[in-house]
Amino acid sequence: MKKSALFATAIACVGLLITGCQKNSSSGTKNQDKITVVQNATVDSLDPILAYQNTSSTVVANTTEGLYTIDAHDKPQLALASKVKTSNHGLTKTFTIRKNANWSNGDPVTANDFVFAWRRLSDPKIASAFNFQPGAAGIKNANDIVAGKKPVKSLGVKATGPKTLVVQLDHVVPYMNKLLAFSDFAPVNQKYFQKTGKKFAQDSSHLIYSGPYQIKDWKLGDNTIQLVKNPKYWDAKNVKIKNVKLDIITDPEKAAIAFENGSADYVHLSGQLVSKYRKDKNFVNDVGNFTQYIMFNLKKTGLDNADLRKAISCSINRKEITTHILKDGSIPSHSMVMKDLVKNPTTGKDFADESTTNLYEYSPAQAKKYWNKAKKATNLRSFTLLYDDSDPSYANVAAYIKAQVEKHLPGMKVTLQQVAKKTRTDKMSKATYDATLTRWGPDYADPTAILSMYQSKNDSNYGRWANSEFDKLMAQSDQTTDQAKRYKLLLKANNILIDSASCPPLYQIGAPVLERSNIKDLPMHIAGVPFFFKYASIK
């Protein structure tokens, strides 16, 4: 979903620094109350509907809890809601807000806090990067509101009492509880918001909190965010770690050094460092929560030719990229949906393993075949591959793609263009690019978190691809309550998208880390908010 290019923010350097550690890489923290988390992205906003970077969503989710949270086992749990009642054939959800749920200023958390917040999220005038999510959750009229066809007040949420929130749906969404755990569905105290005005969320003195933590001595632009346990949180007794410090460290080597000298206990490693630490007993290798793609602009003459796009895709050896360039545990991707996100409800097989794979296998022979067909249909013999400067590996990957395409498609020239990340995303939104390296991470654990962005009317369809059969399958999946049938519909939609080669996947990023064994229950979630500190502890 919109985490892409959208909800699209890199977790290139995530680490957990613990205060009070001994000065060697095998030591663990002796202070069970304090941890420090290192990320490479600064906070862009702590207004729940404007928070875009992963650092921001992590802070919002841990300080401004919503109806649901995600536990250490990746399961959604009721949070500010004590119970939910489903009626009207699944199209009405009635949430009861906990009696002891209060804001840090003493105000009770009310149903209206959610109504006010979700209307802001859907308001097209505010243009939140995640304004598509109420529609993804199936909330009545959400899509029409975002499109400007209906007023914000028609959103299917209402407060029927101080602690009773009624949510009306256009259709049943089986993953709704997972989606509502995301940070943009957090409540906002309307009275406090209106009182603070433009100062809201600009610093810690203009924020109040409904979650397990509150923020101390922070202002927008700071590279350190100090979270302290919120004593007015409804479940404060079960919050074990009292202080969480987030520091921004953009250099992976400095993070690794922090681990070695005992001031870090959970550090994300770059590919260049994996070989150095692979045999360390603290080394853990796993797949991460982003997939890297090449997105083509189908509004560009020539790139609208499917054979040309397939020729480019078949000319790229994904295994060579992951093994010889990245070296960080990244794995070649053959599905639009990443591994470990969704399982077949009947067989338990991974969605990514069941999708069409042959199109994205490296094959110079197939590349030549598609290229010969494309040359008869288009005169395009050059294109520019755009990439940004947010990750040093992108330049090497882009250079490799250029070399492979020019080698296997004789007569095709690739020009490389590096820009700032914001410039890249602006060019994508305005369709002023040829092809670009972009990545996408899921906001919730369902295939639609990825596939929905390719629907013809989706604002996130930056490649301008359109396919009526794909749109039909996606619409049918929205109306289907049979999970096995729904899975097959989405798998078929995934394969149609793969066959179009409109946005060929390259690799799913690796997530190699150095992690102390005494840190418990702090997994990095593959979908949505990366970390929920409430469940963590230090043994």
UniProtKB/TrEMBL annotation:
<keyword id="KW-0732">Signal</keyword>
<protein>
    <recommendedName>
        <fullName>Solute-binding protein family 5 domain-containing protein</fullName>
    </recommendedName>
</protein>
<comment type="similarity">
    <text>Belongs to the bacterial solute-binding protein 5 family.</text>
</comment>
<dbReference type="InterPro" id="IPR030678">
    <property type="entry name" value="Peptide/Ni-bd"/>
</dbReference>
<keyword id="KW-0813">Transport</keyword>
<dbReference type="Pfam" id="PF00496">
    <property type="entry name" value="SBP_bac_5"/>
</dbReference>
<dbReference type="InterPro" id="IPR000914">
    <property type="entry name" value="SBP_5_dom"/>
</dbReference>
<dbReference type="InterPro" id="IPR039424">
    <property type="entry name" value="SBP_5"/>
</dbReference>
<feature type="domain" description="Solute-binding protein family 5">
    <location>
        <begin position="75"/>
        <end position="461"/>
    </location>
</feature>
